[in-house]
Amino acid sequence: MKWTNDRSDNVDDRRGSGGGGGMLVGGGLGTLIIAAIVFFLGGDPSAILGTAVNSGGQQTEQRQLNQQELQVREFVQMVTAETEKTWTQIFQQNGMTYRKPHVVLFEDVTRSGCGTAQAAMGPFYCPADETVYMDMSFFNELQQRFGAKVTEFSIAYVMAHEVGHHVQTLLGTTQKVDQLRQSGRYSEAEMNRVSVATELQADFYAGVWARQTDNREKILEPGDIESAISAAEAVGDDNIQKRSSGYVNQEAFTHGSSAQRKEWFMKGYNTGDIRQGDTFNALLK
């Protein structure tokens, strides 16, 4: 992935700053469900985080970030800036105003508007404070446990997916999904399908971002799109279920299959058109 000269000032790097220990209470969720939550990409984790309590654990010592960590910060600042520029442009083209999200880099545990965030959860977006939370150790897990080819652009894809959830919040999609969930009129299986549509739309938006940003900045290099697809496929529900339990239960899908994640990311990338991303009508007919 080609780096640009843009850097965002909306990135808060909390690594090395110390902090209180935290504890995430499972709330009775089964082991397999927790495993899925831990390794899925994004979405609104507030239902889980709402059960988080501060354990009053030990304070960790502050430390200086090493050169590699500083480079990671610069990379995240660059990708954040490119999401801001691209989505500002897309919103303006559609007569809307884009509100930039914040991005937090953290390690181990930190506080979010949705509750206590832990590294084991992977990257996520919190609509309550309009912030993307990133612990970079997730990408080691993505490669070692789920077989993804991790490159700079696969990290950019994950960030773009989370920013896609921010776009959903700005467009009112997140709020509509929450209203459906809170209404109690739909079965768990039906809400799972809504969740799949939500996640695949975020993948679609990540593809739109990749196309539009490359058109403007020529950021893509050979193999970049393939590495994004590898990351998307690695966190497909079917792949995670096979690796965690040995079988696939489609009714329990909440993020989409590997094939679906690839399909919708590529549709966003190939069209570059935000209007082509109605995953809800496509999946919920």
Automatic annotation (TrEMBL):
Top-level taxon of origin: Bacteria
Segments of this protein annotated with the region Disordered: 1-20
UniProt keyword Zinc present: no
Subcellular location as annotated: Membrane
TM regions (residue ranges): 21-41
Keywords annotated in UniProt: Membrane, Transmembrane, Transmembrane helix
Membrane topology, from the record: Single-pass membrane protein
Gene Ontology CC terms, in alphabetical order: membrane
InterPro entries linked: Uncharacterised_pept_Zn_put
Chief site of localization: membrane
Compositionally biased tracts (Basic and acidic residues): 1-16
Protein's UniProt keywords contain Transmembrane helix: yes
Protein name from the UniProt record: Metalloprotease
Organism: Soonwooa buanensis
